[in-house]
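[agent] plan:
  1. take the single chain provided in the ticket
  2. run structure prediction with default settings
  3. attach structure tokens to the ticket
  4. add a short note for the reviewer (M.T.)
[agent] executing step 1
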Amino acid sequence: MERKIDKAFDETASLLLGRQLGSVDAYSGWLGEHVPLPFPAASAVSRKEIWMAPPINFLDKRFDTRRIIDMAEMESVNVSPYGSKELEAVENLGQLLGKFVSPIAYYCGNFRYGAGQDIEKCSGGGRGRTIYYSEDVFHNVKNVAFSHCVVNSQNIFGGHHVVKSSFGINIYNSNAIARGFEVDGCLSSSDIYFCHNSENLRDCMFCFNAKNLKNAIGNMQYPREEYLAVKKMVLSEIAEKVTKDKKLKWSIYNVGEAHGKK
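[agent] step 2 finished; step 3 output follows
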């Protein structure tokens, strides 16, 4: 049976590239390349699978995986077995940490912010539905996968710091993007491909540090017919490469280094 997240990925790919791509897991390396993602560990209490936030959330420090519990298991470990009598007998910091701190010092994984539906392989998520392999995805979200810190958005695949956006593949540090592919640092734009640090773009490709452009390629505006012809050629080639390789070697972070290479 087709999963909801795969169906949403196909819908998004069809809208952006004109082609369905199939299971989102087949593109995990590509979608997660620039995204801090959670990782699995086993609960110290039940041995059930727990998804932990990536180290970047904690100054690049990784929690001891032996000290992990599920959010639902907090009540079973948050009460100290010792009282004032044992405290009076403590003579140094080592004893204090070993006797009083160790029994309750656990990292809580599988964290959920309010109600949510169909949330899988997420260290932090909630107040939305169909969230997959992500961290800190919450508040009116729907159909989000391989993402980190996404709010008020839907159909985002490969997102990092995304707000109020929809139908995007590999969207980073952006706000209010409708239909975007390989986008970084953009605001209030729609139907954009390989754009960086730009605002109020409409139907643009390969635009950098620009504002208020429409039907533009490389910061130069063109007649609508010419723009669409080039767009069709570009998207056809991208779709072929992504379908074949399950990734694309060019991203918004390296496309400026192409220099005519195929």
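[agent] step 4 note for reviewer: The chain has two domains: 4-35+118-257, 39-112.
[agent] ticket updated
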